[in-house]
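Run log, item B.
One chain of 402 residues. Sequence copied directly from the ordering sheet:
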Amino acid sequence: MSRANCLTMCNATELIHSIPVDAQTGAVSVPIYQTSTFVQEAPGVNKGYDYARTGNPTRTVLEQLIAKLEKGTTGIAFSSGLAAIDAIVKLLKTGDEILAVDDIYGGAYRLFTSVYQQFGIKLNFVDTSDANQVINAITPHTKLIWLETPTNPTLKISDIATIAKIAKANNCLLCVDNTFASPALQQPLTLGADIVVHSGTKYLGGHSDLIAGLVVTKEKELGDRIKYLQNACGAILAPFDSWLLIRGIETLHLRIRQHCHSALAVAEFLSAHPAVDKVFYPGLASHPNHEVAKKQAKGFGGIVSFTLKEDTNEAALAFVTSTSLFKLAESLGGIKSLVSHPANMTHKSIPAEKRRAAGVSDSLIRLSIGLEETDDLIADLEDAFEKITLKQHAGNQRAAAC
């Protein structure tokens, strides 16, 4: 057994036994405390809870669980991934600058530029997979470095440990969006990051049935500040969604193992296909930061992106509407495989010139590899390629006839 597999198994055991048995009833499943308020013995004297926006026992279990998985001190659960990101940005003040990865999730880009820029938060987008670009871009105003690694959707890899040292030397906070990797594969706080953020909607939930955001901090003082913002601003995760997320996390390690296995096979298939131009997957030796990914993660994840040799919006749309098992939809990380066209979907809010400069071309297609049989997924992709080839051939015949 490899050391990486041993680590995964040990983490799975730790995870399962980190979810407590209910002390009052012995229930194996965490109870859903569907209540807005709690009876107090006297004003300010209670059993740890007074009002459900401030705290809820079901949400507390989730927050403690994600903190343990990420090796942090404090976990905070929000109503969405963007609500979690929003709370982190609220640590800043007018005149502060965010140095962010250029290939950034469209929702984060929209929040940074359309909401916070008007309040005087400065922005600088660079290719953080090149640490020298980070060093050259930092200014005295830079207070937060924002990484996604792997990025969405071109799967760039940034060296977390190296950039953590850069951040510390310049008195910056380092936040890593760990959504694509999940704590089953990567734990940024152990590599020097200050904050980890997740869209719990994705791999942590794993079943495309909830919306949630999570923040974990390395230091308690920073966690207390974000916890204060959670309560003050109110974007909390409800008890039932907290319970759903706990239930999803219980099988995280098993799911991630299969996601990674199938994703590598799909990436290798696409790399050999004549209609494909480039394949983006950190598990391929051809990936420019493959060695960094190997160093800082236990696996390469379940997302594969690729571009077509016919680099047009029309070609990509033809492909994403020709699959059967891969369902055309927003989001990722669930048990069912999904396909999306970032230029028209997740990254549409980013101006076209910025999007293309970051590597999100018009023909780029993102696959979220689910838990179906690997061979079936590859057959579905092959069938989609055949369908668009037949459509193109029929179109050429009609044009020739005219």
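Observations after the first pass:
- Residues 1-10 have pLDDT under 50 and may be disordered.
- The chain is about 40% helix and 15% strand.
Flagged for discussion on Thursday.
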